[in-house]
Amino acid sequence: MEGLFIAATISMGMTNYLSKILGFKDTPFIKIAVSSLLIAICGLINLAGIKESINVASALTFVEVLALVVIAILGLKNINTKALSVKPTNTNSLLMSSLLMLFAYTGFEALPRLSEETINSQENIPKAIKYSIIVTTILYTLVSVATISILGIQKTASSRTPLSDIIQKLFGGGYSRILDIMALLSIGNTILMTNIVSSRGLY
Fold first, then answer.
1. Half-sphere exposure of residue 132, counting CA atoms within 13 Å on the CB side?
2. Which of 34, 101, 140, 174 counts the most CB atoms within 10 A of its CB?
3. How far apart are CA 164 and CA 172, in angstroms?
4. Which residues neighbour 95 within 8 Å (Cβ) at sequence distance 6 or greater?
5. Do 35 and 19 form a contact (C-beta atoms < 8 A)?
6. Which residues contact 76 (CB under 8 A, 6 or more apart)?
7. Do 76 and 146 contact (CB within 8 A), yes or no?
C-alpha cells in the first residue's frame, strides 16, 4: 500500500513540472490522466526486464545527482544565516515536513528486494544501503540549506517547483527550464523504482 500511494503521489507532483514545461493547465482530470500515463510508461519499462529497468534508473540517477550537486554548489555561494535561523512556529507544518521525509528516503528498502539480481548480495547490499544513505543525507542537507538561503522560508514553502525557482532567480528563466526537465527525469526514476519494489514485495 505504501508503494502504491508513493507512486501515485509522486506522479501527481510530476504533473506540476510537466504543466510548467508544456504549458497546459493542470486540472484534477488532467492530473489523474497524466499521472496514470506516467505510471503506465514506467510499468512498461519494468516489464521489459530488471536489467533494462536498472539501466534506465542508473542513467536517471546520474542526472538527478548532477542537478542536486549544482544546487548544493549554488547554495554554498549564497548561504543566508538569517533565513536558516528562523524558528518553526506552526506545529502542523512541522509534522507535515516530517511526513515528507518518507518520500525523501523511500527507496533504501528497495535494495534488499533486488538481492536475487545482485552479485555477492550479502556483502554488497548492506554496503549499498550504508553508502547511499550517507551520500543522499549530505546532498539533501546541502540542497535544503541552498533552497532556504536563496528563496527564503515563505517562498520555499509556497513554491511548487523550488529547485527551478532557484535557477530562475539566479540566472533567469532559460536555465530553469533545464532543471525542470532534470527534475522531471528524477521523479520518473522514483516511480520506476517504486514500481519494481512494490511488485517484488507483492510477489
1. 16
2. 34
3. 10
4. none
5. no
6. 142, 146
7. yes
CA 182/CA 187 separation, integer angstroms: 9
Name the pTM for this structure: 0.71
Backbone angle region of 18, left / alpha / beta, with phi > 0 → left and psi within -120 to 50 → alpha: alpha
In whole angstroms, what is the distance from residue 150 CA to residue 78 CA? 6
Q: Where are the alpha helices (DSSP H) in the chain?
A: 2-22, 28-48, 50-77, 81-84, 91-104, 110-113, 121-151, 153-158, 162-171, 173-202
Q: Which residues, 6+ apart, have CB-to-CB distance to 2 below 8 Å?
A: 106
Distance in angstroms (rounded) separating the CA atoms of residues 139 and 65: 8
The C-alpha cell of 47 is what? 516489464
CA distance 39 to 4: 10
Give the torsion sign (CA, 52, 106, 4, 111).
positive
DSSP state of 105: S
Closest residue by Cα to residue 60 from 159, 161, 172, 194? 194
